Amino acid sequence: MSPEQILLLLLDLLGTFAFALNGALTAVRHVRIDIIGVLTLGMITALGGGILRDIMIDDLPPATFQDWRYLAVAAFGAFIVFIFAKHLGRMTVPIEVLDAVGLSVFAVTGASKALEFGLGPVQAVILGTLTGVGGGTIRDALVGRIPSVMSEGLYAIPAMVGAGLTVAAMMTDLYGIAAAVIAASTCWLIRIIGIRFKLNAPQPLGTFRRVGTQD
């Protein structure tokens, strides 16, 4: 494997592990489910974004099903949460931090893989963003919450920034470990600042009524 491929794999596995922990923590905090439910939500959160990415670029079957390490890392992360659920279930900060880690890493790997498969820079940024928010969106839908990407302004935006920095680095032949870390760290920092200060992107002014409702 080339250094770039090794870097992509390591980042992918890191994002997979972080999102597995996040999905499983969400499961034990928001819904009362058994070990199968915890593992399922953790693994879907961890693998959903990568699967969507690979389907979009026609890399089939998705890397998740070509390399056993993805499934193993996702299952291991979710199982850790199941074992220590008593101590982790009430923690809010770890869920948000891990979500930010997964978002950041997947935004970078999604954008870099898109460029490697011949997509243009704009398409690569879009796919990087989709990879970052995909797992969290599926997670939120499964636990009955409005997806963060639709309700929190600083969720998709950090992913777009991370993906954009990745694309810029690759287009200028500056991509490597340092560039990937900078791109992911920038995405993570923006997301954490948004959480800390409850920041959102501009929202529509005024109140909108549903069609057919009465005053």
TrEMBL record:
<feature type="domain" description="Glycine transporter">
    <location>
        <begin position="10"/>
        <end position="85"/>
    </location>
</feature>
<dbReference type="InterPro" id="IPR005115">
    <property type="entry name" value="Gly_transporter"/>
</dbReference>
<keyword id="KW-0472">Membrane</keyword>
<dbReference type="GO" id="GO:0005886">
    <property type="term" value="C:plasma membrane"/>
</dbReference>
<feature type="domain" description="Glycine transporter">
    <location>
        <begin position="97"/>
        <end position="169"/>
    </location>
</feature>
<feature type="transmembrane region" description="Helical">
    <location>
        <begin position="154"/>
        <end position="171"/>
    </location>
</feature>
<feature type="transmembrane region" description="Helical">
    <location>
        <begin position="68"/>
        <end position="85"/>
    </location>
</feature>
<keyword id="KW-1133">Transmembrane helix</keyword>
<protein>
    <recommendedName>
        <fullName>Glycine transporter domain-containing protein</fullName>
    </recommendedName>
</protein>
<feature type="transmembrane region" description="Helical">
    <location>
        <begin position="6"/>
        <end position="28"/>
    </location>
</feature>
<dbReference type="Pfam" id="PF03458">
    <property type="entry name" value="Gly_transporter"/>
</dbReference>
<feature type="transmembrane region" description="Helical">
    <location>
        <begin position="35"/>
        <end position="56"/>
    </location>
</feature>
<feature type="transmembrane region" description="Helical">
    <location>
        <begin position="177"/>
        <end position="194"/>
    </location>
</feature>
<keyword id="KW-1003">Cell membrane</keyword>
<keyword id="KW-0812">Transmembrane</keyword>
<comment type="similarity">
    <text>Belongs to the UPF0126 family.</text>
</comment>
